[in-house]
């Protein structure tokens, strides 16, 4: 069991406090489970109050015992009823407040209204953009975990190469691969911040099922088992001479790496092979371009330029329904900042972790490559190592 | 691929419209993916407007193609930018509105603020309690699917009996079981309405790991792989003479059944065997009590009474941290209404589907039973069929 070290929590909290002070915000009330984990090292059900100045207070509903074991914070108390929060904070010398920050991008309205009553003379503002921008840049501690996660995903792609076979359903292959992930400590799902967004281990589809688009905000969709879960693997049988795209992330100690490879039993149609080489060329181009200070939009534009100059422009990043990004931050959530998309002026910074996923979608399949990279002073460093050719079985 | 039939959607929509009319609400804007699926038969990214009177309008961002294939509704249009929603509704003859309903229990504040601007002269109220109370009572169509889901879970419990073995980790067993679920079309996760609540296939723990409580709102917790996912299976090895509790739901065509059985390689300690028989007695008592018109609180109280009269009162429903319910509605979400808990005055109705899960938690393990039942005129009918004794291997 890895416990987030105290120095790491302190660094994260100090970074947020610097922003709070600069913005004139008295404190942040962190409630979303992933953010609580980021700042407190525990995911137990809790409110974490981070004052602009002073020690944070972790108020735990359940499990208090466990939060006390897992969190290196000093002030951890049991709070059964959130209504007593104001009195508790007062006992720590915090409040009344002029301005408090909440995670308004994820907090449901009904819950917000309750907090609004509790802190009725306080102005409530959204601190999620600040939190997300802090989480965007990973520390050496986080990069260490992400590296381990990448090592585990390398094993998984090896497992797929050994276990993929003709005539089984996508769901059957997915089940086998997911069991291999689970045994290695995968939490069994991805966390996403976006409302209504959900994902298990990732996308695994073959041939024509790769052309089915979906509600999931990515270039590929997939039919899924049924319309109640309209994405990823379905009952289609895996056949010969068609692409099997596996876009699986590993989630280890909370941290995600995202990766895509193309498998094929037999031989791929020529247009897919050619489109794959364009995707690969885009990846290589982005690797040379992506240095600290370069804007995300520049990466997207140069990717689009290569795609448009090829024979497959209209198949880039989805067909017929296209998404307008080629990459995204990953960390504790799959949809972290920055988004590598048109118009995004965020400059790259050292320590950002990005999944870059140029893909081309056709009626008879999809191809592409995805790796997770860390931005270093010298450019992108690949974290997700595995054979970067089409993997023929 | 099962498509929700038009008559079923029409029935659901009419039920909501009856409430809207009675409450003087002009219409409901449905956005949460599960509710959209319930009323429109598709889970594509969309806004579903249901007027108090007239035909609904499904406004789809992505995938429009797929929503058109999956939904039996008449008015399905592509809407790229939600800002155009007001004009679109006007073109169908809807608006301006005095009062509109949104799902404020799940809608994030930032998104709500955008809708508030769009409909600036409209009062926005929460219609989730109405939607949840409609979804609480299942139709014959829904019961048909739930029955299929129960049949698949029966196969899964048989699979566990055949595949459980000493010396493998909980995660390894979980992976194998989950692969068996996935091959049968399990969507790979449970949907929960509660903020911050998440669950994969369910809980699978053994011996002392059953005593670890967690953020998940249930009687059992489990260590999980690490503090970033502090529930269910972990790296503990499954041993002899200890309980292995498997609380796995099957999610088929969106519909959940919830079930728990106790497996044991060897022989269980006497106190666990005796506590199991109390749990079973509670289940049987509830089966005779639970008739239409009986309040949920009555079921909880009588369960508590039996537990308190036994030698294991303080171990009932969690130890040392206890939850205050013994059952809950299931359907498209795991935390549906009603909750079978102290003080809940909701009377049972024919067609409600309830998971009842009396459990006892000790330092060296936990035991109990859970089945999913439908409320009929004659009382509870068990849907989740499998050996109801402790299953010795």
Can you tell me about this structure?
The structure is a homodimer of 393-residue chains. Chain A is α+β, with helices and mostly antiparallel strands and 393 residues long. The first copy, chain A, has two domains: 6-134, Creatine Amidinohydrolase, Chain A, domain 1 (3-Layer(aba) Sandwich); 137-392, Creatinase/methionine aminopeptidase superfamily (Creatine Amidinohydrolase), CATH 3.90.230.10. Helices cover 33% and strands 23% of the residues of chain A. Chain A contains ten helices and 17 strands. Chain A has helices spanning 6-23, 33-40, 64-70, 85-91, 109-118, 128-136, 140-163, 170-183, 270-289, 296-309; strands at residues 27-30, 45-51, 57-62, 75-78, 99-102, 123-126, 202-206, 243-252, 255-264, 325-329, 336-341, 353-356, 359-362, 365-368, 371-376, 379-382, 391-392. In chain A, the strands form four sheets. The first copy, chain A, has a six-stranded mixed beta sheet with strand order 4-3-2-1-5-6. In chain A, a hairpin with a 5-residue loop joins strand 2 (45-51) and strand 3 (57-62). In chain A, helix 7 (140-163) crosses helix 8 and helix 9 (270-289) runs antiparallel to helix 10 (296-309). Chain A is elongated, with a radius of gyration of 22 Å. Chain A starts with 5 loop residues before the first helix and ends with a strand. The model of chain A has no long low-confidence stretch (mean pLDDT 97). The interface between A and B is large, with 78 and 78 residues. Chains A, B: This is Xaa-Pro peptidase family protein. Chains A, B: Pfam families: Creatinase_N, Peptidase_M24. Chains A, B: GO terms for molecular function: aminopeptidase activity; metalloexopeptidase activity.
């Amino acid at each position: 069991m890895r416990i987030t070290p105290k120095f790491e929590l302190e660094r994260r909290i100090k970074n947020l406090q610097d922003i709070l002070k600069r913005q004139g915000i008295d404190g942040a009330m962190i409630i979303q489970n992933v953010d609580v984990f980021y700042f407190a090292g525990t995911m137990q059900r809790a409110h974490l109050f981070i004052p602009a100045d002073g020690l944070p207070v972790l108020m735990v509903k359940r499990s208090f015992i466990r939060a006390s074991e897992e969190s290196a914070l000093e002030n951890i108390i049991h709070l059964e009823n959130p209504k007593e929060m104001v009195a508790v904070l007062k006992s720590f010398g915090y409040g009344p407040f002029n301005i408090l920050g909440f995670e308004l991008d994820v907090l449901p309205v009904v819950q917000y209204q309750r907090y609004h009553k509790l802190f009725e003379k306080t102005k409530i503002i959204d601190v999620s953009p600040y939190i997300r921008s802090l989480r965007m840049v990973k520390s050496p501690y986080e990069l260490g975990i992400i590296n381990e996660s990448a090592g585990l995903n390398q094993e998984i792609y090896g497992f797929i190469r050994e276990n993929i076979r003709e005539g089984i359903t996508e769901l059957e292959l997915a089940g086998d691969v997911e069991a291999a992930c689970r045994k290695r400590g995968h939490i069994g799902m991805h966390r996403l911040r976006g409302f209504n967004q959900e994902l298990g281990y990732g996308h695994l589809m073959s041939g024509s099922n790769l052309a089915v688009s979906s509600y999931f905000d990515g270039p590929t969709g997939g039919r899924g088992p049924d319309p109640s879960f309209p994405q990823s693997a379905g009952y289609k049988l895996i056949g010969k001479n068609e692409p099997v795209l596996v876009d699986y992330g590993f989630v280890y100690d909370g941290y995600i790496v995202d990766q895509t490879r193309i498998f094929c039993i037999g031989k791929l149609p020529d247009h897919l092979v050619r489109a794959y080489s364009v995707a690969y060329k885009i990846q290589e181009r982005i690797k040379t371009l992506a240095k600290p200070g370069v804007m995300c939009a520049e990466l997207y534009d140069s990717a689009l330029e290569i795609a448009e100059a090829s024979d497959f422009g209209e198949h880039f990043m989805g067909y017929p329904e296209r998404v307008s990004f080629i990459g995204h931050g990953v960390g504790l959530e799959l949809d972290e900042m920055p988004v590598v998309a048109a118009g995004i002026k965020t400059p790259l910074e050292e320590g950002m972790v990005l999944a870059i996923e140029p893909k081309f979608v056709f009626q008879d399949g999809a191809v592409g490559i995805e790796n997770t990279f860390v931005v270093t002073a010298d450019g992108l460093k690949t974290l997700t190592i595995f054979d970067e050719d089409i993997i023929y079985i």
